[in-house]
Design brief:
The chain contains 13 helices and 14 strands. Helix 5 packs antiparallel against helix 8. It starts with a helix and ends with a helix.
Length: 464
């Protein structure tokens, strides 16, 4: 890897001018201030802290796990426009992307980086013949996009020993980086994480939970004030406060307090009902879900749909949340692995849309009966071996094509039984011997065909 980085650095240094892109606030969205001066007050939030909020963690891990379990497929389009799987050792990197990750971990880390930081950077390692033999998903906080004076794009990589970058800094051309980015709000080369929009809601949810934690740590007893009927000195007030804190707060909360001289304790905390605590907490979680485009019920904070159709729910989740991420990953890998025209990477969606056994059997049965699916194709979906004669779709014999029916209706009287063909007498008389036998067989066959056609016509008239 050291020689590769050295060659790439020399190529990048040939450019006269390289500068970071203008991100206008979108490059490092992991530290934000809800208001001016909030950082000095300790009120800022960063991606590392809001990731501890249950809704953020649930959305990121749900999406990355669902995409991670979809196997990579290499597919090629045939002359009929059908995409078929094929195998080629040139693309074995999809089975084992690098030395420390399998393909599931690789996809999960790819999607996590994109959702968490807004960008995924995949560094390509090539074999001696130029084929990509490994892809390393880099730490996005150690990568910066650069643009040269002629518009060429480069990437400045910080030190990353795990991925083979031992130097403090190295610049590589865009041809050696697979860059998958989230929605680009500020610059076309800078993706912005959903946390940019949901960070404040997640921070609010964290504060609600922290406040509840302190409240219940105090035995669910609110703070308040001790009031006296008359004026008291500062020393007396200090002594009463110390006595109260030592005997009736913390682990002593809930004990019976005996007050004299007209002292009275008055709680000052708003109740959870008055503060609408549960509603506020649910609202913050729903805001997080909306920015990640995850249906709230998927992480247990929303109402389940009224229809009990798992397949429809998964398709809704796929179309509004997963589809863009999946197709973007597929296209980035198509370009990064330099697939030929008409070939590429596809993620197997059957893992997501896996139906229950009863629905699957009925669906396959209808497909086979309608001649859409061959029996062996249906058996393959059920992980069953092929059988002889099952490669061809079948239809019942009484089904007619529209063209055949049109020719029938074009006749003067389409429902008139066909006339019996005339039979010429044999020139050799009635003693034809073998010829008579053959003629009799021919006549018998013709009469059978005529009877069959008459039966079909009667059946068609009965249907009408």
């Amino acid at each position: 890897m050291a020689n590769v980085f050295s060659a790439l650095r020399n190529a990048a240094q040939q450019k006269s001018y390289i500068a970071p892109v203008d991100n206008r606030g979108g490059w490092w969205p992991w530290i934000r201030e809800p208001s001016a001066g909030a950082w000095q007050k300790g009120e800022e939030w960063c991606a590392d802290t809001v990731a501890a909020y249950h809704a953020v963690y649930a959305c990121i891990t749900l999406i990355s796990a669902d995409i991670g379990k979809m196997p990579f497929l290499t597919v090629r389009e045939d002359k009929n426009g059908i995409w078929n799987q094929f195998s080629d050792t040139k693309y074995s990197v999809l089975r084992k992307p690098n030395r420390y990750q399998n393909h599931i971990q690789f996809k999960e880390w790819w999607i996590t980086s994109k959702l968490f930081r807004g960008n995924t950077y995949g560094l390509k390692e090539r074999a001696s013949n130029g084929v990509v033999k490994a892809i390393y998903v880099l730490d996005p906080t150690r990568v910066q996009v650069l643009v040269s004076s002629d518009g060429s794009v480069y990437y400045q990589l910080g030190q990353d020993e795990l991925n083979g970058q031992e130097q403090t800094s190295v610049t590589v051309p865009a041809s050696e980086i697979i860059h998958d980015r989230m929605n680009c709000l500020f610059h076309p080369l800078v993706g912005v994480s959903p946390l940019y929009a949901s960070g404040l809601a997640a921070s609010q949810g964290m504060k609600i939970q922290n406040d509840s934690d302190k409240f219940f740590a105090n035995g669910a007893n609110p703070g308040g004030v001790l009031t006296a009927p008359g004026g008291i000195s500062d020393d007396t007030a200090k002594r009463l406060k110390e006595h109260w804190d030592a005997n009736y707060t913390g682990s002593n909360a809930g004990k019976v307090a005996v007050l004299g001289d007209g002292l009275k304790f008055e709680p000052m905390r708003m109740t959870a009902v008055d503060a609408q605590l549960i509603e506020q907490l649910r609202w913050t979680a729903e805001v997080v879900c909306s920015t990640f485009h995850v249906p709230a019920y998927k992480i247990g904070v929303g109402t389940m749909p009224t229809y009990n159709n798992i397949d429809a729910q998964n398709k809704d989740y796929y179309s509004q949340c997963l589809q863009s991420l999946i197709e973007s990953m597929e296209l980035c890998l198509d370009e990064g692995l330099e697939f030929e025209q008409g070939a590429g990477v596809a993620l197997d969606l059957d893992v997501l849309f896996r139906m229950d056994s009863s629905t699957l059997i009925n669906t396959l049965k209808e497909g086979v009966a309608a001649g859409i699916t061959a029996p062996n194709e249906a058996r393959k979906r059920l992980n069953q071996p092929p059988v002889a004669g099952g490669e061809t779709p079948y239809l019942q014999q009484q089904n007619y094509s529209l063209a055949a029916l049109a020719r029938r209706d074009a006749q003067e009287d389409p429902f008139k039984p066909p006339s019996s063909p005339s039979v010429e007498p044999s020139e050799e008389g009635s003693s034809g011997g073998a010829d008579d036998t053959a003629r009799d067989e021919e006549m018998k066959s013709m009469r059978g065909e005529i009877n069959t056609l008459r039966a079909i016509n009667r059946f068609e008239r009965a249907l009408e």
